[in-house]
Amino acid sequence: MTTLLAGLSVSVPPAAAEADKATPTPWSVGYDTANASGTRWYENGYLTGQGNLQNTGSGCFTLWGFYTVDFSYYYVKHATQCGPGSAPVSIQQDASMLTSARLMICRGTEDVSDCGPKVRIDR
């Protein structure tokens, strides 16, 4: 792969670039009494991840993925935990068209109106 930056050409062997993407990278995000953490990696053209959503309070919290493709976006519900406990997180999104990928925790189970900060996971 060759990248041009202001007249400078930098070559990265394709195998090395793919190996970097395949390396598991940790992520974590929190909001109020909930937090989630895990790892993500790229595999067979997919952004893939695993982790856990934990809640120490009495309410419901949901881990949402916020994915952009060029100038459009969509949300994916990855896990929900109501009351104290934990829920497994599984992520698998087609990475071929993704511009960016972020995770956030929101209060409740149905919408993204009351959420904590987004954490970018695609880099």
Question: Can you tell me about this structure?
Answer:
By secondary structure, the chain is mainly β. It has one domain: Immunoglobulin-like (Sandwich). The protein is built from one helix and ten strands, in the order E-E-H-E-E-E-E-E-E-E-E. The strands form three sheets. A four-stranded antiparallel beta sheet has the order 3-4-5-8. A four-stranded antiparallel beta sheet has the order 7-6-9-10, with no helix packed on it. Strand 4 and strand 5 (46-55) form a beta hairpin. The longest helix is centred in the N-terminal third of the chain and has 9 residues, at 14-22. It starts with a strand and ends with a strand.
What low-confidence regions span 5 or more consecutive residues with pLDDT below 50?
1-17
- Spatial order of the strands in the main sheet? 3-4-5-8
Calculate the terminal CA-CA distance, rounded to whole Å.
17 Å
Topology-level CATH name: Immunoglobulin-like
Number of helices: 1
Largest sheet: 4 strands, antiparallel
CATH C-level category: Mainly Beta
Q: What is the share of helical residues?
A: under 10%
Q: Which architecture per CATH?
A: Sandwich
Structural class: mainly beta
Query: Could you tell me the strand content as a percent range?
Result: over 45%
Give Rg in angstroms: 16 Å
What's the SSE pattern? EEHEEEEEEEE
Layout of helices and strands:
Layout: E1 2-5, E2 8-11, H1 14-22, E3 25-31, E4 34-43, E5 46-55, E6 60-69, E7 72-82, E8 85-94, E9 100-107, E10 119-120
